[in-house]
Amino acid sequence: MKIGMRRLSAITLMILMFISIGVANAVPKGTLSIDTAPVKGEVFVNGVSWGFAPQSKEVEVGTYTVSFGAVAGYTTPPPMTETIWPGVTNSPTGTYILIPPETVVTEPIEPGEGTVDATDEAGAEVDYVATGSTTVTVTGLGECPEGTPSFSTIGKYVDIYVPDPSALTSITIKVYYDEDDISGLVESELRLYYWDSTALAWLPCSDTGVDTTANYIYATLTATTTPDLSYLRGGPFGGGSPEITLTPDTGIAGTVVTVTGTGFAAESTIIITIAGVGGFWTSGPTLADGSYYSGPIADIPDTIALGAHIVTVTDADGNTATATLTIVTKLPAETTNQAAKDSTGAPKTSFTLGETVLASAEVANAGTQSQAMLIVVQWTDPELRVMAPVFISVTLAPGQSFEYAPGLMLPLTGYTKGTWTATIMVFSAWPAQGGVTIGAPVTITITVS
Fold this sequence. Notes:
Elements: H1 2-25, E1 29-37, E2 42-45, E3 48-52, E4 55-60, E5 62-68, E6 74-75, E7 80-84, E8 89-90, E9 93-95, E10 97-98, E11 103-109, E12 112-118, H2 119-122, E13 124-130, E14 134-141, E15 152-161, E16 168-176, E17 191-196, E18 201-204, E19 208-211, E20 216-221, E21 233-241, E22 243-247, E23 250-251, E24 256-262, E25 270-274, E26 281-283, E27 292-299, E28 307-315, E29 320-327, E30 333-341, E31 350-351, E32 356-365, E33 371-380, E34 390-396, E35 401-404, E36 407-409, E37 418-427, E38 437-448
Parallel strand pairs: 1-8, 1-9, 23-29, 31-38
Antiparallel strand pairs: 1-4, 2-3, 2-5, 5-7, 6-10, 11-14, 12-13, 13-16, 14-15, 15-21, 16-20, 17-18, 17-21, 19-20, 22-24, 24-27, 25-26, 25-28, 28-29, 30-32, 32-35, 32-36, 33-34, 33-37, 37-38
């Protein structure tokens, strides 16, 4: 009887062990439930097809990449990253966007002058001067056909196809727009862009402009323009304008400003002017893709008036972009309540080597707009030997303040006793990265014995 009980107990123990091992080795899982809208497309998880949506499966916890197959007439949703947790269902949905059907107008061309009117079908019109016979096909495109626009686009693209461009002397493409198309853009800066397959970039046509009365952007192509007539063997065009960014866009007189831009002519000299400041700055050239970085263009003179000033950037072809530089009455960062404190936060001015001193100060945004601030604290000993700076980056809204009190353990060796000084400085960013001083520096002194 005792032997039987022992055998039963051993068997029971083995069963419990197998159960425990099974539970311990169970892989935690969640559910990945994928759908698409408004049409059903094929779904992939980590590159493996699950079939057409909707699809739902239990998967092990972890991170998965969900991607989607193409559906004719629709844009393909971008891939999604999904992190699965135990017992949780993730339900990503890929959204397909309808691509408006291409609209095509084809007309024959005979020697002389004429117009192909595709305004109803493609929002475009073509004027031509021909010496021979050929055809012109104008196709309205539902989305950007090549790459990513580097300019500020109005969202309208057309393709112009001429099987025999040698039959033409010139052709002028007109792309029409309405006020909604150019919201946020400067109408006078609109240009017509073409796709440069060598630079893999959208560049402005060399002979382009805008008719702000008739509301169309135009470009004329001849044998000597860029692009020339040979581009018409199926080359797309898009409307938009160059764009620039000022860093910083707000400052005091004396601020160093840099300009970055896109959508300009390739390898072109740039001229920069600032309203209210005499003269101009010449810079460049732009890169092959039409992008531009000025480097520091100038110290804004002390005589510049307060307020908003228009900065204008123009390339050699006359393509122009503008931005606003605001000159303020005072530096936006104000540093107050600077004091030395001990490790408990109590004010203190005398320390010994090996103690920790806090350089405490309050930095406020006295400006009228949100401001990124780099607060730097730099200690020096009586022989002006410099300790490694400590710093923090914050962004403060107008009127908001931030108290910063980094600690320093005064080194036991290598430095001198006496009067130590902490300088607290505020920049818009590191000077090596184009940052400027945006607050008057303040100092804290302590006696070290």
